[in-house]
Amino acid sequence: CKVAVLISGSGTNLQALIDAATGDQAEFSVCAVISNRPDAYGLTRATEAGIPASVVNHREYPDRDSFDRALIEEIDSHSPDLVVLAGFMRILTPEFVRHYSGRLLNIHPSLLPKYQGLHTHQRALDAGDREHGVTVHFVTEELDGGPAIAQAVVPVEAGDTPELLAKRVQAQEHMIYPLAVTWFAQGRVRMLEDRSELDGALL
Ligand code: GRF
């Protein structure tokens, strides 16, 4: 299974995917890394791993539609089976989402459907939640709204700051994203209309 990874920043999730893809038993390979920001550190991670890295800079396009069309063109030139958003900080057009329907994944740092959007760690703290976490889900036209594939839960500890909580969540991100991609590569998980199915069971 060939996986294209889209990033905007440091790319620690990308690194977890690269590491999982280099093992003997790996079920997938990372065939391309594409960033909308030329300064994203994840590009360096890709190059060091010998993976083609490219930039489609959103600032060079007059609107979202033309940016997304350029992005589709770049992604499709690598013919991936799966497209993975890993800290990719652009909202995608319905046209883009439809183009990759059922083969587009995102990771979101909250227990969806709680806290769609930004500042999830602060919002969990503000709400006094005792548990927080992360979700891998199929991407649909609803922002952070598509069917979930995997979640990991972490405790919220007394004295937590958003940064401490983010660290705890990120350690889980780095485990469940490679896991979810492996399930997809094995053909065990798929998107039905508005649900995910894993090993034949509805999630
Ligand atoms: C992660 O926390 C992810 O959940 C969110 O953006 C962050 C990306 O981090 N969508 P990194 O670039 O993978 O280090």
TrEMBL record:
EC assignment: 2.1.2.2
Write down the Gene3D superfamilies for this protein, in alphabetical order. Answer: Formyl transferase, N-terminal domain
Which Pfam family is one of this chain's hits?
Answer: Formyl_trans_N
Q: Which reaction does it catalyse?
A: N(1)-(5-phospho-beta-D-ribosyl)glycinamide + (6R)-10-formyltetrahydrofolate = N(2)-formyl-N(1)-(5-phospho-beta-D-ribosyl)glycinamide + (6S)-5,6,7,8-tetrahydrofolate + H(+)
Coiled coil: which residue ranges?
Answer: none
Question: Hey, where's the site called Raises pKa of active site His on this chain?
Answer: D144
| Molecular-function GO terms, alphabetical | phosphoribosylglycinamide formyltransferase activity
In which pathway does this enzyme or protein participate? Purine metabolism; IMP biosynthesis via de novo pathway; N(2)-formyl-N(1)-(5-phospho-D-ribosyl)glycinamide from N(1)-(5-phospho-D-ribosyl)glycinamide (10-formyl THF route): step 1/1
Q: Which EC class heads this enzyme's classification?
A: transferase
- In which residues is (6R)-10-formyltetrahydrofolate bound? R64, M89, R90, I91, L92, N106
Q: Which family is this protein grouped under?
A: Belongs to the GART family.
- Record's protein name: Phosphoribosylglycinamide formyltransferase
Provide the species name: Microbulbifer taiwanensis
